[in-house]
Amino acid sequence: TTLVDCTFSGNSVSDNGRLGGAVYQGGGGQLTIDGGSFLANTADRGGALALLGPATVRNVEFHANLAQRD
Q1: What span, in angstroms and rounded, lies between the C-alpha atoms of 21 and 4?
Q2: What angle do CA 59, 64, 70 make, to 5 degrees?
Q3: What is the pLDDT of residues 9-67, one digit of tens each?
Q4: What is the DSSP letter of 19?
Q5: According to DSSP H, which parts of the chain are helical?
Q6: d(CA 26, CA 20)
Q7: Considering the entire predicted model, what is its pTM?
């Protein structure tokens, strides 16, 4: 899957233990994120992204994302 010049802003996952406020990649195949921004997303773990498989992230802005836990 490839995401190009996407903006993810103000997304959240509120259930305890949930991963990736904006994008969750569960490990099935390659994810490429090329350009775009992740702004003020929240999750228990992985405020903006949770990547459990192969991924390439380039030319992406991250600002004010929050993971509630380590």
Answers
A1: 18
A2: 100
A3: 999 998 767 899 999 998 889 999 999 999 999 999 999 999 999 999 999 999 999 99
A4: B
A5: none
A6: 10
A7: 0.90
**What distance, in Å, lies between the first and last C-alpha atoms of the chain?**
27
The percent of the chain in helix, strand and coil, each rounded to the nearest 5, is: 0, 55, 45
Tokens at 48, concatenated: 């903006």
Question: What does each C-alpha distance from 67 to 20, 36, 57 come to in angstroms?
Answer: 9, 20, 19
Nearest to 19 by CA among 44, 55, 53, 56: 44
Q: Which residues lie closer than 8 Å to 7 by C-beta, 6 or more apart?
A: 36, 37, 39
Are 38 and 11 within 8 A, CB to CB?
Answer: no
